[in-house]
Amino acid sequence: MNIYISLKSLAKRKNFITKKPYELQKKPNTLRELITQVVTQNVEQFNNKTSNPETPLINFLSNLDIEQQAQAGKVGFQTLYNDKKADLARAIETAIQAFEDGLYRVFINDQEAEQLDTPLVVTEEADVVFIRLTMLTGRMW
Hints:
The protein has helices at residues 31-47, 63-72, 88-100, and strands at residues 2-9, 17-23, 104-108, 111-113, 126-132. It has 141 residues and is of the alpha+beta class. The chain has a single domain (1-47, 84-136), classed as Ubiquitin-like (UB roll) (Roll). It starts with a strand and ends in a 9-residue tail after the last strand.
């Protein structure tokens, strides 16, 4: 099943990723299943990253690379300094807990998905938006 995912932050004016195509293994019936599938696929992708044997001895960034990475919000050499694998069960638990704590919201075709276990209608080519909420800190006088 193909959907489009957008990641947004209320602190940023532009999307981190604008309508990125994403393939789900099966159609999710609940928001919990959708989050679990997305986290599972991302953890597997992260854990399967291997260092490229053709990596040049000296890395450099072209002006185009710098501009593209600056648009995403971080400029770097894409080097992983930690070879530790992500724990799938813990990642799913953390993502579900973050949703329950209100750290992000999920919208499917402009409709907010508010409950984790309520039946969910995700159609082919659906627009799924994850909005990360920014916590403000300060002092009250």
